[in-house]
Amino acid sequence: MAKRADDDSSTVEEARPPVIVWNKERERFETEDKEAFLQYHLRGVGLVVAAAADSCDDPEQEKREGAAVVMDMVHTYVPRSKRGMGLAALLCDAAFAHAQRHSMLVIPTCSYVSDTYLPRNPAWNSLVYNGEPKASM
Ligand code: COA
Question: How remote is the CA of residue 115 from the centroid of ligand 1, in Å?
């Protein structure tokens, strides 16, 4: 009887969707075992705009100084044995939701994000950085 109960609980455990964790220090969203991850780097695009304003002395451009931090999603990795099950999509879900919560735009440098995830989740296109700081930032 006891063995049967254990077996049941392990089945429930296996069916649990993977938990995605934010690793702030390593700039990653990753599975609990850290084997699958989405690597990002934060970039201050306001600094680029400020430098441009300095060089061209355009007051309109100066208004855009101090603009935004963008999340550059540089790499997604899932171990071979776990591919094709939507794990990379879960990592992206967590990363895009995080960017939205923190009012950050996103640069989809990783080809999985740009070529597969975004076309399948077009609602997130509104967060993609297109060279202009977001008006509300
Ligand atoms: N670029 C774009 N799309 C890719 C891709 C890539 N390099 N590699 C796989 N895909 C697509 C597959 O064609 C697949 O499409 P399908 O659903 O029509 O079969 C889809 O991603 C699978 O999606 P999902 O299950 O969410 O992804 P995954 O958990 O299998 O992980 C990767 C996808 C890319 C993270 C994984 O294959 C991997 O780690 N590859 C090696 C590292 C790499 O190339 N990373 C991407 C560039 S940074």
Answer: 9
Output the DSSP codes for 76-117.
Answer: EE--GGGTTSSHHHHHHHHHHHHHHHTT-EEE--SHIIIIII
Token pair for residue 34? 């850290």
pLDDT tens figures, 23-34:
999 999 999 999
Ligand 1 centre to CA of 85 (Å) is 10
Least Cα distance to 98 among 70, 74, 136 occurs for: 70
For residue range 55-103, list pLDDT tens digits in order.
445 544 444 455 678 999 999 999 999 999 999 999 999 999 999 999 9
Write out the H or E segment, with its range, that includes residue 30.
strand 28-31
